[in-house]
Design a protein that fits this description.
With 98 residues, the chain is of the alpha/beta class. The protein has helices at 19-23, 44-48, 75-83; strands at residues 5-6, 27-31, 35-37, 60-65, 68-73, 88-95. Strands 1-3-5-4-6-2 form a six-stranded mixed sheet. A hairpin with a 2-residue loop joins strand 4 and strand 5 (68-73). The termini are far apart.
């Protein structure tokens, strides 16, 4: 299994972070097999597009909540890394309290 679990939606409360807020969080390494996805649909064209991060953040966005890591943005990056047999993803991790 690539991910810890495939989820549907965000179980954590809304955080209201804007792209500028995410950019202030330094990226760190996270294990792909510890991530729970918040999307269960993949767009193959986006996965295969070499320029898919051209206009967005280079790092995935992960929310840490109640001990779990939720992949909020970056599903395609994570799958691309897994296809290259990497088990680590560089991500910006926002730690939420209860």
């Amino acid at each position: 299994m690539i991910f810890k679990r495939v989820g549907e939606g965000r179980p954590y409360p809304a955080h209201a972070l804007k792209p500028r807020d995410w950019a202030k969080i330094p990226p760190r390494q996270v294990r792909i097999d510890q991530l729970i996805t918040t999307k269960d649909t993949l767009h193959l064209a986006a996965l295969l597009d070499e320029d898919s991060t051209f206009y967005g953040d280079l790092f995935a966005h992960v929310v840490q909540w109640r001990g779990d890591l939720y992949l909020e943005d970056g599903l395609h990056r994570a799958l691309r890394a897994a296809l290259h047999q990497r088990n680590i993803l560089h991500a910006r991790v926002h730690e939420m309290g209860d």
